[in-house]
Specification:
The structure is a homotetramer of 333-residue chains. Helices cover 31% and strands 22% of the residues of chain A. Chain A is of the alpha/beta class and 333 residues long. In chain A, the strands form two sheets. A seven-stranded mixed sheet of chain A has the order 8-9-7-10-13-12-11. Chains C and D meet through helix 7 of C and helix 7 of D.
Chain lengths: 333, 333, 333, 333
């Protein structure tokens, strides 16, 4: 593919939070041309007020045929079960699909059935879309299961350290995760009511969150994962606790992370200056900082992303860039 | 009635925001004993987590007979149409009713039909429950239509000045009102989704809000009323613009307000030190401050309340206190 | 000037909120190259964590000579008195200066002395930098006094209507303005303490805010201006009340605004769908909506901007674009 | 002491957040009469706007003699070093002192010197003021070092389980703590600026927070403690990770907590329904919930308090009640 010859892209699920973010990013992307923006099937055409002058066309009801006929690539920001239905026929018609849902992330059929019961089995070859760790596979991908928001922050911080053998896996790895409310999606619920969240904080899904399973799949080790709902709109901060193996220290942690992300434009290693959500909001960056208590070799990692960008739309575009041979950061800066 | 002989009270609509506030206040009220806490008809029994150890009984489904048989007085924190149905039979059975909805506030049948189309006509004698301005009527009331949240803040500031003849009524009186999201009720909607409100501000209902009609009824003059949805949980601040008549000045404004509220424990006149929502949150106070631009006689009034207390549950209890001969502030301090 | 030949720019006051926003915008601006980023005189070199990988050089102490020697244009995001000192010598040395402070905005010497007492008189020719209304003057400008944040939102909404003779100027024009806390600057004060703002709202500077004077200068008519501190980081919403002259109506308002902003890429007229801060945050847009109560010809305008972008850094860049012959939106989309 | 004979109390440091909360509570306390409200030495008399009609007297400059002469008991809400200076002479003059600072909490002289270097050594007998765990000692106390906010939430959850031998102490006990900004005090800093906190989250003091030392002193075991600054005004939620010993399970955890807090009116055990900050805000409750992953015996505890009430002023009053023989909950409901 010639550089900068625009790829015709479609967005399904364009009126949710990730979908709007996709439209925002893709409308300015020099290598993409949005030819279809669709919501759920049967949805009335709807304009996105925040995108006036950025993306002025209406978001129409989902029409799989129009989508298949007009596009080269499709971004799916649909609910899991809808994505599970829509992705295979699109791939069968030669479209490259970037799915932001969880429908295709779990490789183990049993786990997938348990945690995504509404999705059917699939024999599609799937690439797990955490860009920094799967660039080679992305180049030839047809169906990309973009990484979940919580897993993105967790795996980015932990995987290089596990690969380098720096972490004790007998001791529990604990991920205390905090997410902005947009991570819960746009459908209004008691949980996402402003008055329930404002001035508050709560944990949920303890030992019962499917993102824990996704993290364990990618890391190959068990984790304790506790998510919390933060009274902010967007952003995730994860505080991760692990023990270093004897002989490992602060410098070894830094070296492993630097080696892993030397060529990664969207990873910022902040060392002892711990990341804050404010610094990554509205960007595709993943900021990672850490501290080590040398006497006990206790490691604390802090990993931050914007859940709608690096945790969803931004990473999907980053995957798209790698898949189509564009510069990885095209349209994301 | 003997002082401090507990009145048996019921709360209908007890699981909404105003209802929970009523339970919180009444459970500690020395002159009341909650004998029934009910939600909507058919609702499953539900405990209120925030009220554990304060009010531990479940909120049951609405049962009009139980309510009528067990209580002396009933607080209604129901939707308008439900309150319109429930109040008359309760009054007919000798209960004193304190209604927090808008069902009975408008006296003009035509306006009532237009702005509360789901409520039926009623021939109940109704007392408008803005305590400070209707103490005498409250004493003999059977059905009290407690004042709306926006109207409370507006009328408290404006009525004494209009009564004293200090305001030009040819010039428009403008009420720029800002409310926390709990004022929109507990039902989740796109409007009340955390991510839609956080970091934002919006106006709504311009020239089309029924609280404007309620304000005009009580003031006897037209107003321009524009409400805004604030990214906070609770509290209302209204910035009110009016012109003083020739000869009137800052001192006259202060004198009229002080005269009106000399015996009112919940009105705090702050003068030039303008009120802030933070100072009234979680209290039954109405704080009123003002500034006058002498050359143009432009008056700016700031009026602040907690919409769930002085704007709803607190004022209902204050009305209850006056109606039953208790000290006006009993259980509210 | 050749298109896209990068202009060498400097930013003084680069570590405040507007300064950081300037660095963010200019670092990606195809027509500018940042050659100097400076804070206050004597400040220690400081990195901006949020800008890692975007702008990695340190912000150094202010050095006027370095600034003058290395740049073609200078953006000043300094306190008023510092800007008043620094701008004239820079202009004298041939630099084009874009000042974001209030130091040069008021043309009347008496008013300037009263409202900006620490600034000295100046004989510099100054262009008032509200881009949409001064494009011609900007082309030949040497010193641009970029419009204040509150004035930008107010003047954008009102000026076309006053010019078209649609507003009664005998009736008071009322501007009820609400701003995010970043508008108060980065210096920590009791007023900007998180716990003082969160969950609250307050009015301040009633009849005593210098932005009222700036608005009156540009509109040529008196206004009543009341600003409020909103519990959000960034964004301004102004609710503006005025009376239409006899014969004017909703359509006339729309026509006047459309005519005024036909060629303005950053003005979005939303008509009856009123603007919200969320829709303009992090953009250079000014969104304007309105409603008219025909019986009384009462007009309500809602005008929204991001105070750090269209109200500060974005507008400064927009002015820079016009001044240097670039496309007005370059680097701002 | 006779029940309800009012104790004459003084509050030093009355204009900070904890001090204002003390005035709010004590002004309504049937067993106390505030006879002195003082700020720092030399402070100008200052009224507390939020407390008008609740506590109308001014907060004066600190005067140790007046304080000693007029009171029976003194609450200190001063900075650590000031409390360290003021408490001993007050005790020497027969006053019972309730200190909310950290000055007297650490019993080990070395640790105290390291973490509170500005405080002097003291030979005062000190009672650690975590009410539920020290009721007997409080009865005869002269100087009470009220527990810190973070330690309160942590110790309340962990101590009964450690005492019951349910927790592995070889595995690390991890306390991931999140606090509202009022916990950082009222002095404006860059850290507490609204725009730095809003929409963000950050960790701080990793391995370097003196509250970790206080927790370890009271628990007798090492912990990993990471505090975070939440974008809310008040409230603490701590997510605590520990391993159960073989044989221990969910029921054992519940039994140990119930046994420990059977007679404690301010502890609410929520079991699997995890606590939320919203439910404890503005109350003296400590809510504790938990989940156990049986296969790994991983325990997750959630402990919530209002940092200004149970974490400061409320607990000080609770300690006062026990010390003076009042009902433990007097004035706190």
């Amino acid at each position: 593919m010639n550089t900068y010859s625009p790829v015709r892209v479609g967005v399904a699920g364009a009126s949710g939070y990730s979908g709007v973010e996709l439209l925002r990013l893709l409308s300015r992307h020099p290598g993409a041309r949005i030819v279809a923006a669709m919501g759920s099937p049967g949805a009335e055409p709807r304009h996105i007020p925040a995108l006036r002058r950025v993306w002025d066309a209406p978001v129409n009801g989902l029409d799989l045929d129009v989508l298949a006929e007009s596009t080269d690539a499709v971004f799916l920001a649909l609910p899991d079960h809808a994505a599970a239905e829509v992705a295979p026929p699109l791939v069968a018609r030669g479209k490259r699909v970037f799915d932001l849902s969880g429908a295709f992330r779990l490789r183990d059929a049993g786990l997938r059935k348990r945690w995504y019961p509404k999705t059917q089995d699939s024999t599609q070859p799937v690439v797990y879309g955490l860009t920094e760790h799967n660039r080679d596979l992305l180049k030839d991908s047809t169906l990309v299961a973009c990484a979940g928001c919580y897993p993105t922050a967790a795996i980015m911080a932990l995987k290089p350290l596990l690969t380098a053998g720096l972490l004790q896996t007998t001791a529990p790895i604990i991920i205390d995760a905090k997410s902005g409310v947009s991570g819960a999606g746009k459908t209004p619920t008691e949980r996402t009511h402003f008055s329930e969240c404002h001035g508050s904080l709560s944990a949920y899904g303890v030992f019962e969150h499917r993102h824990a399973v996704e993290i364990e799949q990618e890391l190959g080790t068990a984790v304790t994962f506790v998510p919390h709902l933060l009274p902010i709109d967007r952003g995730i901060l994860e505080t991760i606790y692990a023990r270093l193996v004897p002989g490992a220290d602060d410098a070894a942690v830094g070296a492993a992370l630097q080696a892993a992300y030397a060529g990664s434009p969207f990873v910022r290693l902040t060392g002892k200056d711990l990341p804050e959500i404010k610094h990554v909001a509205h960007t595709n960056f993943c900021d990672i900082g850490w501290r080590v208590h040398e006497p006990t070799r206790q490691l604390v990692l802090i990993s931050c992303i914007d859940n709608l960008v690096k945790g969803a739309a931004g990473q999907a575009v980053q995957n798209f860039n790698v898949a189509f041979g564009f510069d990885e950061g095209l349209g994301l800066n």
